[in-house]
Amino acid sequence: MASETLLLPGDPAPYSVLNPGGRAPLVIICDHAGRAIPQVLGDLGLPPAVRDQHIAWDIGIARTAATLARELDAPAVLAGYSRLVIDCNRRLDDPTSIAQESDRIPIPGNRGLDPAQRAARADEIFRPYHGAVAATLDAKLAAGQVPVLLSLHSFTPVMNGFRRPWHFGVLWNRDPRLPVPLMAALAQLPDVCVGDNEPYSGRDEHGYSVVAHGEVRRLAHALIEIRQDLISDDDGVALWAGKLLQVLPAVLADSALHRLRE
């Protein structure tokens, strides 16, 4: 069934590319950078306070990505729409791709969608974003670089009553080339707690982006989670992006990261 028209004049673009001419052999992606909702969907039946929460986007991660892209001279591809419209880090056949409930909060605007409505969200938001990620990686490869893929997310400080101790989490699965030295370097920083596949696991393959763009292409890759309360304002972004910048240049300098995995 054909999709309906979703995005109208005046709606934001489905993605943005920061520093597209960045020369580093690195591509940064943010699946949950934005919290826009298409005009035709209204507010999805949610009050503003809910649309500002973590269920709608990864708080602080867009500014963190912008800092890293600038300082590392790398392109960054940022998704523009709320994960509540469609989650760019889920397969389209995943039940949570268009969530009817998130963190026990019902999403009225996602109930009872027909195939054309679901297809519109995939065709006008999900596919353009992932097309931009693929094009950015292709451009690096065409220029003779084998890039590293770094996916950035943020996580809540408390979940189900448990106060999460980690400042950073590094999620990974089959390819240790980037995550293992990255975790070791972060752990050497004073007063930094690093989670190995915490607070989520990269081994359950629930996420889509690093699998589709990293594993499938055999590129070195990792997903970094940063605790949201640490990067909720400009000072926090500067501090915690700064900690990543203390370790990433040396880690990324390893030539083994810039070969396709055998």
Which secondary structure elements does this structure contain, and how are they paired or packed?
Layout lengths: L14 E4 L7 E5 L17 H4 L9 H12 L3 E4 L21 E2 L2 E2 L8 H28 L5 E8 L2 E2 L2 E2 L4 E4 L7 H9 L6 E3 L12 H7 L5 E7 L6 H19 L10
Parallel strand pairs: 2-3, 2-6, 6-11, 9-10
Antiparallel strand pairs: 1-3, 4-5, 7-8, 9-11
Class based on secondary structure composition and strand pairing: alpha/beta
Mean pLDDT across residues: 96
The major pleated sheet works out as: 7 strands, mixed
- Give the quaternary arrangement of the chains: single chain
**How much helical structure, as a percent, in the residues?**
25-40%
How would you spell out the order of helices and strands?
Answer: EEHHEEEHEEEEHEHEH
How many strands appear in the DSSP assignment?
11
Summed up, the domain count is 1
CATH-scheme architecture: 3-Layer(aba) Sandwich
The value of Rg in angstroms is: 18 Å
User: What share of residues are in beta strands?
Assistant: 15-25%
* C-alpha geometry: globular
Biggest sheet strand line-up: 1-3-2-6-11-9-10
* CATH class wording: Alpha Beta
In CATH terms, the superfamily is Zn-dependent exopeptidases
Which stretches are poorly predicted, pLDDT < 50 over at least 5 residues? none
Number of helices: 6
| CATH fold-type name | Aminopeptidase
